[in-house]
Amino acid sequence: MRPRSVTGPLILILIGALFLARNLWQEIPLFDLLSRYWPFILIAWGVLRLVEVLAEAARSKPLPSGGLSGGEVALIIVLCIVGSGMYAANRHGVHFPAFGTTGLEMFGEQYDYHATSQKPAKGAVHVRFDNLRVNVRVTGSDDQEVKVDEHKMIRAFNKTDADQADHQTALEIVMDGDKIVVRTNQENASHARRISCDLEVTVPRGATIEGRGSYGDYDITDIAGGVDIESGNAGVRLTNIGGNAKVALQRSDIVRAVGVKGDVAIEGKGADVELENITGQVTINGSYSGTLQFKNLAKPLHLESPNTDLRVAQVPGTITMDLGDFTASNLIGPVRLVTRSKDIHIEDFTQSIELETERGDIDLKPGKMPLAKIDARSRSGNIDLELPESAKFELRASTSRGEARNEFGTPIETATAGQGASLKGKVGQGPVLTLTTDRGAVTVKKS
Amino acid sequence: MINGNDFVRAVRGPIILITVGSLFALDHFTPWTFQQTWPVILIVVGLLTLAGRMSRSGPTPGGAS
Asked: What predicted TM-score, i.e. pTM, was given to this entire model?
């Protein structure tokens, strides 16, 4: 019998090494890496088998007939399906839960520790949080001090271990230049992954908050300064912030900001984003798999994601956006939206509007007069435009495959050509409205 | 003496595997998508089959192993 292949055991070792890496260094985005680089596993596997075959051929041994066994072929097919699934999901903003972190936490017992620490501080103080796994709740108050209440949870097999870990990770408030740094020192513990922390913090109202960590939520309320958070995985909730807010996350379940006086900048990957009552500019750059909601933004909004580019000058009303839909009402333009596959509904907007979707219906109702330039394009989808009876405009609507419907009567000429149709004409003197779809109906209605 | 046909059969699996892996890698890191490049697999399989036949009737006739 010929010697069995070494690939089986090697794959076992590889999987073990990956999980070990995941457990030891949690900040490695293992699934992101795996979802991109998995084809190289196939290549390495193929090269390995090729070398084996060549070696056997060189020793003039009998050769395996197919090069691969049936089991291997099945495993390869599974790998291809799982790999491309992960890759597609990752590209569309879905992230995989760090399931490597939960397994071992079931063992041992949980020990709780409480600690309090404070430091006098005045006015516009800069407070930084340097943490691995911590949930932080910060509230601005009139007291002239930074006060931290810590609740630490340590999983260990016995109390001695837990006590030791507690000592190694004593809460510290130290000065770094003119910054106050709050440290939980979890990196000093022998078993860092078994420690998690909740911090309840009060700071002087004028404070600026900086957060650095790999895991844990931030909840910040009533601060006159700015907020700057960078984390591997966090939910961020900001309420009543006086300065700019900058949030950069590799993963998140939610970023919510209500009442920010300065600019808001969000980047990275996540699920939901909710912004309300923002006085400054809003810039979002990243991919989000959940629902994005914007309400009452006083300055320009710019959103850039792999599938969508959105610019709006002002949002007195609301915008709600998820993977398949974009719904907005009461916008001040110019509005520009380019997206891959979304149905778009916009009502009550002023100034010019430019829309482009590859797959999806477009539904527009410019409630306010006078009209401004409209340019709407869909590769595949219906376009509906509803105009007030008194509207004045010049219409250029066409579909390459579908019907054209018009409720404005004679000033608009309807023509059919092949499978398509077009509407052209002027109703009074007004801006040019261009509606173009490759496949679908174009309709102009009176409201 | 190794039979050329057996040799081609033996390397066929690994070579297809490397091809598939490379195509997916191209898909992920270059503008070429798998939807565009998959016919390469057919070509590789065809070439391997051809190589197998050539070695059977060609300069290294089968029989001894």
From this structure: 0.65
